[in-house]
Amino acid sequence: MEAGREMGGDMRVDKCVEDIMKEHGVARNTVDAIIRNHAHIDHVGRPSRFPSRTKPVVGPGIKEAFYPGRPAVKEAPVAAREFLVRKVEGLTPLQFDMEIGGLKALDYCGDGSFYILSPPGHALGHLNALARTTEDTFIYFAGYSVDQPSVLRTHSPSDLSVYVHVPSRSCPGAVLHARVNRPKSEHPSEAPSLEKEAAARETLAVVQRFDADDRCLWWWPTIRVFMEYWIYSPKCRMTGKLKI
């Protein structure tokens, strides 16, 4: 909030993460680590409101660029008080020693249950995650690799069928044809807000493949419409599949 005001803006926070956790019966002292998606001020949260043993985990380059926080590092999105008496784990590129779906990945728990992925483009140290929900189903947390769900569909490999029934004569066939079997999935308006556009477009193509895979539920931080069907449905979380 303070950083936002210093930059000439303002933000309102109705609830902190730990408040939402408490509402759903999750105690703060059960959290071992907080994996921070990236370091933009609207995503950093308040680690200081968790027990001192809870460590923030940040992507490559974040700790070197912003630690120990403001005021020592003026550009840091977080005040130094957020890091007091706690260890900050800064991931390194060498830790991402495998590849999943075209992205560098880290088996965070060491047992194949939770992977941290390194999707370049949006921001320094930007992270995605892949959580195994059953033996062959997953939830893919896309972070800000995608700004709008509309850039995922309809594009290969989730193109519309060649035969699309439209119960109206007011829509010219050319309108649908333009969206079917497109030769490329890249469009000028599709790149998410980013630091490196070319890398962000490559990452977007990877996310499109995850979205098209029936074994994977794709999740984006601001898809509120999913909340009603997913966040309160243990069965849905266990299978990693969503039916609306």
UniProtKB/TrEMBL annotation:
Pfam families assigned: Lactamase_B
Family matches, as Gene3D superfamilies: Ribonuclease Z/Hydroxyacylglutathione hydrolase-like
Gene Ontology molecular function: any one: metal ion binding
Record keywords: Hydrolase, Metal-binding, Zinc
Residues annotated as domain Metallo-beta-lactamase: 21-127
Source taxon at top rank: Eukaryota
UniProt cross-references to InterPro entries, sorted A to Z: MBL_superfamily_lactonases, Metallo-B-lactamas, RibonucZ/Hydroxyglut_hydro
Family from the record: Belongs to the metallo-beta-lactamase superfamily.
Protein name as annotated: Metallo-beta-lactamase domain-containing protein
